[in-house]
Specification:
The chain is α+β, with helices and mostly antiparallel strands and 89 residues long. It is built from three helices and five strands; from the N terminus they run αβββαββα. It has a five-stranded antiparallel sheet with strand order 1-2-3-4-5, with helices on one face.
Length: 89
């Protein structure tokens, strides 16, 4: 994505190569160049690369898409953990 940082774009390329189904990339945070959303049905996974260069992990929050109700609090996830989360939804 043009307005996102390098780490978000790398993440999007890696995700596109996975055999994941029924997900859609959404961007409600145009001003935040370190964040992107992954929508799966009625679930939104907020992914941030804000500290990625230090921790090599993504900050992930899971919430209901329509209401914003928190499903899972913010946590650090590796790429493999993020893919597992997507697959388990």
């Amino acid at each position: 994505m043009e307005n996102k940082n390098t780490e978000i774009n790398k993440l999007l390329i890696k995700i596109s190569k996975e055999s994941l189904q029924n997900y859609k990339i959404v961007d409600f945070w145009e001003a935040d160049t370190t964040a992107i959303g992954i929508q799966i049905d009625e679930i939104l996974i907020y992914v941030s690369t804000f500290n990625y260069d230090k921790a090599h992990k993504y900050n992930v929050i899971i919430e209901e898409y329509d209401t914003g109700k928190l499903i899972d609090e913010e946590k650090e996830s590796s790429y493999d953990e993020l893919v597992e989360t997507i697959n388990n939804l």
